[in-house]
Structures are given as C-alpha cells and as structure tokens.
Amino acid sequence: MSNRSAAQVAQIPPRFLRAMDAPGYLGMCRDEFNKTVRPHVREFPIGKQGVGFDRLELDAWADSYVERKSIEKVANQDNNRPRSERQGKDNGATPWPKKQSPASRECRAASGKSTKSTEENEFKRVLALVTGPKPGNT
C-alpha cells in the first residue's frame, strides 16, 4: 500500500457515479437530471442492475451548460442607481414626461364630484354585510 492515509483516499471523488448519485453531484433533483442531463451523456451498466455515469463527462456537460445558459453581468454594476427616471438627473431636471392616452386627449379638466367618500361608504357597507350576523331563515 502507498503512503496515503485513508482520509486522503476518501477525498478523491469516484470516476463513476451511480444513477442515484449523479443528480446530487450536479446539484439537481432526479427529475431535472433525467430531463436535462441524461439525454446528453453516456450511461453504462455497473454490475447486474446498476447504471453509471462518467464523472468527467458530467463535468464536461456542466461546463457546456454553464457556457450556454449563463447570463453576462455588467462589470462595475451600480446597484444603487436611482429608482425613477427623475432622480438620476441634475437639480434642474425636467418633470415627468407627459404621456397621454388617446382617450385622455379628448377629455379636458372638468368639474365633478369626488368619488372617494362614496367608495369608502360602499366599502364599509359591504364589510358590514360580510362580517355582520347572518339573516335567519324565516
């Protein structure tokens, strides 16, 4: 036997992974592994009933997957940028841009009754109906 201790030997990952261990090796559930990975890698028998995957082939698939699916990040991102269009401009910034729908162009300012108190009263009435005692069956 060589000069390696049992702890050093245990740290070497196995070359072949059984089908039940391969999804965990890639950090995914079995269903996702079967759908996303398994069609693209070779599998082979281990013993009478076992199915195995080559760890190096799984690593190559993972590298390829990350290369295809990764999202490029902008260097030096400013995570504290303004939350609105106006906040990032100088003090003499223009007000919000005026955007009008075609319908609002036809309607000009008109006098009328505020509906806020009407809506509040309607809400209170409906709330009382829902939370109040149920009417009897007479």
Element layout with pairings:
Blueprint: H1 6-10, E1 16-18, H2 22-26, H3 30-37, E2 43-46, E3 50-54, H4 55-69, H5 102-106, H6 116-131
Antiparallel strand pairs: 1-3, 2-3
Descriptive account of the structure:
The protein is mainly alpha-helical. It is built from 6 helices and 3 strands; from the N terminus they run αβααββααα. A 3-stranded antiparallel beta sheet has the order 1-3-2.
Classify the beta-strand content into a percent band: 5-15%
Count every helix, treating DSSP H or I runs of 4 or more residues as helices. 6
**Share in helix:** 25-40%
Secondary structural class: mainly alpha
In the predicted model, the low-confidence regions spanning at least 5 consecutive residues are none
How many individual β-strands?
3
Shape: elongated
The major β-sheet equals:
3 strands, antiparallel
End-to-end Cα distance, whole Å, is 94 Å
Order of helices and strands: HEHHEEHHH
Mean of all residue-level pLDDT scores: 79
For the largest beta sheet, what order do the strands appear in spatially?
1-3-2
Radius of gyration: 33 Å
Descriptive terms for the model:
single chain; 138 residues; mainly alpha; three-stranded antiparallel beta sheet; 9% strand
Short characterization:
The protein has about 140 residues and is mainly alpha-helical. The chain contains six helices and three strands; from the N terminus they run αβααββααα.
